[in-house]
Amino acid sequence: YRKKPPQPYREFGAIFRLEGLLVDITGLQWKAWKTTAEKHELEMPTLEEVRAASAHRGAYAIQRIFYWSDDIFEVRDIAKTHEDALKEVFSNWMAEQGVTYTPPQGPKSFDLFGVEGDDSSSEEPVASGNEASPVAPSEHNVDVSEDIPQPSEADYIGMQFRSWKKAAETYGYAEPTVDEMQVAMYTGPEEAVQKAFGWTSDPETTVNVVTIYRDAFRQETDLWAQQHQPEDLSKLKKQPSPQSSQQEQVQEEASGSDELSKDDVAEMQLFAWSTAAEKHGYAVPQLEDIQLASWVSPDEAVRRVYGWTDNFQKVQNIASTYREAMKKISDIYIKKKNIQVAAVAKTSAPQEETPRAPTQDDIMRLQLEAWTQTALKFGHDAPSIDVIQPAAFAGPDGAVRRVFKWTDDAEKCNEIISTYKEIAKTLSQELMRRFGQGAGSVPASASSSSSESNEEADLPLFQLQNGAVDWIESLLDVEMPCAVVSHLDQELLDVTLEQTGLDRLFPQDKRVSASNFYAAQSQEFLGAALRLERRPDYCVVFDTTPSSSAAAHQVDMQSVSRIGSYKNYDLLSADLTFKYFTQLQTQVLRGLFTDQKLDEPQTEIQDVKPETRTTTTKTRFWEEGDR
């Protein structure tokens, strides 16, 4: 008998707010709100007001933070202007940085439950002429296989449906419904037979049914391939594929042409996936499965196409092995064929060795150097590294008066602050030149030291918060699913997650954006819980505002708030508050979902004594006349 389950966090879910909590988008909102204020001739908000407004919807910020108007129609017009300005600023930044965006295609997990409409949910899921492209190919074949025909979402669902229908007819089971089919697409064939369709729980029968399905699906893919590229695929099927001499064959055939053909791309992928399968102890995938895997990312291929594992860390390791093998075989082809790929290598090379943005240590050293130069200029003692962190939270004025205690004179204080801001701006520009203008201009915590006029030009559009990635990864390590919600629309959310590296932690089916048209925060949280497939009272919301705590409690969720734009006394309604992600531990979350006080020691047991009855002696006295 085990007192605790092996995975106590698997039954819970975590919901994260993007704005203010994971990513600081003050720079983006600053430019959008400035344009809005100028167009409607309103008072320009301060930087602190914009930072607080970035975690709220536009209408809330207009009424409750900027106090521009209470008229519902005027608020609606101002909010629409802000939304358009936000998209314009972001589009200009994407054009300057050369960032492109491809809308995601394919079925979404929340469509399975009837939350959103989907064209593929008709009763006859066959090809309907829809030419929407599937999920983008992996990063290693995107530049060399753009001309390979790809089935539409309707084609893919139709092939799946006909294959499962044949398996059902063979064993006398009921045909799967459209909803069951969509669930089966996100599980392996074995789980689909046992859980999604509920046909049988016998392992031997399950294997037989899956074998029929795989054979039928292979026939469907062959038929589709013959209709779209018969010559190329017929050549691929005739080529031998013994694993012992596979790399030698690839090297010999690579020297026969000056360009990569479709056959070359398929062989490269076959070699890479075979290497990954052998290294991690899985069966080498079939050519048909590899063709399907080329339409999705390596992570999705491991989980959905091959069905090898759902463990996050294992999926990452297998995908990494595939990428390394793909890079190795790609180099062989490039050298043999003398292909010029300088431009491609520049854009697709991994950037892991060079950080995207300055670290927190870099920011601390920058502020220390700026305050040291300022102190030497005015004849004060240079501050130590220990007081730089309190000075950053106190602001320049508070640092001069209360932290460093240099002076209380207002005129001298302003002169010191002005000098410090100029030095900090110069050092920030030098720092960002070292990082090649990654995702913005100046790190979020360093930008607080510049004046508002300077920050208008130097503030980054968005900046990843320190420690956010480590905390999310720690939750995923204990198999606690995570989702992200945002007030931004889908394009801005997807690009922001991609540029900050959070897209690998939040797949497409775990994102809630303004494009989902939820009317309130509580509805956004419920939508995220639906995507996590967790009960609302088993979910915890990580946010930064008092209103989010109220919305979470409204739908029986727990609330954890980060102290930032709102002080600790503003977040008393939250179940837990923190300032840095490093302060959080997974054990703390379990205490949020139980009424038992785990930290308090058990009180001393009191002996129960038997109840004692006390009796009073009744005394009768003689009354007159009794004698």
Could you explain how this protein is built, in words?
- With 627 residues, the protein is mostly helical.
- It contains 25 helices and eight strands.
- A six-stranded parallel β-sheet has the order 5-4-1-6-7-8. A two-stranded antiparallel ribbon has the order 2-3.
- α8 (203-228) packs across α9 (230-238), α12 (287-293) crosses α13 (298-305) and α17 runs antiparallel to α18 (410-434).
- It is globular.
- Mean pLDDT is 75; it is low at 107-147, 230-247, 252-257, 340-354 and 437-452.
Would you spell out the secondary-structure blueprint of this structure?
Layout: E1 13-17, E2 23-24, H1 26-40, H2 47-53, H3 58-65, H4 72-97, H5 153-171, H6 178-184, H7 189-196, H8 203-228, H9 230-238, H10 246-254, H11 262-280, H12 287-293, H13 298-305, H14 312-337, H15 342-348, H16 360-378, H17 388-403, H18 410-434, H19 444-447, H20 452-458, E3 463-464, H21 468-477, E4 482-485, H22 490-500, E5 511-512, H23 521-532, E6 539-543, H24 546-554, E7 558-562, E8 576-578, H25 586-592
Parallel strand pairs: 1-4, 1-6, 4-5, 6-7, 7-8
Antiparallel strand pairs: 2-3
Helix pairs in contact: 1-2, 1-4, 3-4, 5-8, 6-7, 7-8, 8-9, 9-11, 10-11, 10-14, 11-14, 12-13, 13-14, 16-18, 17-18
